Amino acid sequence: MEMQRGNADGGGVGAFLLHRAKPHIPPWLGVGGIGLAGALGHLRWDESTPAAVGLTLTSVALSGGAWLIGKTTSKQRRLHTALTTGLGSAWLTAACLAGPTAGPLDDLYLMGGPAVALSWNVRILMRHNPEGSGGSSDGGLLEKVGLAKAQIGAAKVEPNRVTASLAVEQGEQTNDDVTKALKLIASALDLPANAVRYTPSPDSSRRGELVIVPEDMLSEVIEWEGPSNVGGSIADPLVIGRYDDGAPLLLWLPGDPDVGRNSTHGLIAGGTGSGKGDAALNLLTEILSRRDVIVWLSDPKAFQDFGPLRPGLDWGVEGGIDTEVMVEAIQGVIPARTRWLGDHSYRQWVPAAAAVQEDPERSCRSDGRACGCAGMPFLVAWFEEAANTLRALGDDAFTGIAQEARSAGISLIVSLQRPSYDQMSTSTRASLPSTIALGCDPRDEGFSLPESVIDAGAHPGAWGNRRPGYCYVVTPGIDEARYPSPGRTQRFTPRAVPVMEMLASWAQRNGATADPITAGAASSIAGRAYTGRATDEEPVDRPDVEEDALDDEPRAGVDPEDQDIDPEVELPDNQPGDDAPLFGQEQGHKPSPEEARRLFAQALAEFEGAGQMIVGPKDFIDWCDRNHFSRPWVSARLKDAALEGRLEATNTTGRWRIVPQPEPTLTAA
């Protein structure tokens, strides 16, 4: 480019013109040199047979050599060079043997020589275009990967990040051609495949931004030292790690109507050894450190990772029937919470909903006065190792929750290794818009991330289990250009256990407790299986309270007509016939209808007392086998109990939910 700017030292018009002409002089000197060589060669080798053979071989060697030497250049330059060398050496051979003026040689020289020189002048002009329209600022990189006509704009250079606008040839290529070439670009730059990303413009099919991260800043392991915002709101961002350029890795669960962000459900997916447990701990510790949220968590691994945090949970179960009860309870609290939010003029959950409702505009009273209702904290329903639950309850176990819970101030978190269609229904997967995608099998990338994010350069399959904690985060609130940018969660070591125990203790003292609406709806479904989180002021085994207090405060989950029943009154003494044997009777004995109802009610009471609120035929078969009753008898009693309202069908075929009922109070005769 300096050759085209003129002589910076001045020197007049002649010097300026000479300076501008310098790049174009060599081809003309070459033409003149060949003419002079032809004349001198003729004087020495006129009609010499050995010279003819030597000159011919030299001409062929020069042409072939030019073609081979130009192998590393572009096709056009290689052909141009070989053709020029061939024509020049052929004329020189003929001029040396026959004379430069023999036959048409002089005319060929006078016409062909300037034409060849001018062709090289034109090539030089096109290569050094001052406007840059035909040049390339990428050093030939895009030409190597099949994007020769693409144009790169000015690059924005940040620490460990280069961003440049890119536009492909109009009418010939699209953004899809760029995404297909990303791996080739990474190869040309000798970088990992996920170090090169492309974000297409939403307003153009041929423009976008190319991002190159030359250095992996995530290789350094950072240990977790504690939550980022103890005592803050769950509506504040949750910090779970950092991006490859050092920026914090953020996630939001509740929506924000002021910025137009929707509430979200989340999926944590990653293969064995990918760091999924640490990612879950990063997120859960952030949630438990907030003042206006409660957590219900199911962990079939018996809280192997979450044990230190269990005291801070509002409800924690270890899988099996307890998880089945929790799923039913969540489905039951959704309409109750949605109704409460609507009655208090909330279109979605916001932090103000967790406080006592003292604003007249948020009142459920018809007279316009403040209602003073207790606030409703945000609810996170977390299912760890959800593949176990999905196998037990069916692949659509979470579909209803995922589709309806967001409007009720509930966020569903599902964690499993492989969220494939054979484990989770497509409807459920489509209702989990947020994803923390860790390393996985390359064939499983499409189950974890949207196709558009993979096309933009995200490849968790490139990590497998070799980069624990490396992840991609897709969630509302993050710029979509960040989606294909890898991040890394913080590492949890044994040194983190005391801090987690302190966090659980803080949550017991300062965290939110379930509001009456949520607790009442859960208790009406789960019965004694739901106890709520124990606090320092209120242990699980609550002390007896005064009878007057019981009279003043309605009991959750109890019909108004039964509020006056005192469950503490002693049962009456044995009545005549109570000591008659119920079990061990002869095979095939059929009890009377009254006796059958009483026996089945006794069985339901036993299950309910043990906290087993979901039952199925196999549970009653075991019970009847122990008490010598036939299996058809079980089916008949299940139908009767369902008709009487003591059982309700669940989403799982053959599974029934026990409807809790207050214990009857009998007075002695």
List descriptors.
Rossmann fold, disordered C terminus, 12% strand, 17 strands, 669 residues, ten-stranded mixed beta sheet, alpha/beta, elongated, four-stranded antiparallel beta sheet, Gyrase A, domain 2
Brief sketch in words of this structure:
The protein is α/β, with parallel strands linked by helices and 669 residues long. The protein has helices at 12-21, 25-45, 49-69, 75-98, 105-127, 141-144, 175-180, 182-189, 276-288, 321-343, 386-393, 399-404, 426-430, 445-448, 451-455, 497-510, 516-526, 547-552, 593-609, 617-627, 631-644, and strands at 151-158, 161-167, 196-200, 207-212, 238-243, 248-251, 266-269, 293-298, 315-317, 378-383, 410-416, 434-438, 470-474, 487-489, 614-615, 647-649, 656-658.
Description:
- With 669 residues, the protein is α/β, with parallel strands linked by helices.
- It has four domains: 2-127; 141-212, 2-Layer Sandwich (Gyrase A, domain 2), CATH 3.30.1360; 238-510, Rossmann fold, CATH 3.40.50.300; 594-658, Arc Repressor Mutant, subunit A (Orthogonal Bundle).
- The protein is 38% helix and 12% strand.
- It has 21 helices and 17 strands.
- The strands form three sheets. A ten-stranded mixed sheet has the order 6-5-14-13-12-7-11-10-8-9. It has a four-stranded antiparallel sheet with strand order 1-2-4-3.
- The longest helix is centred in the first third of the chain and has 24 residues, at 75-98.
- It is elongated.
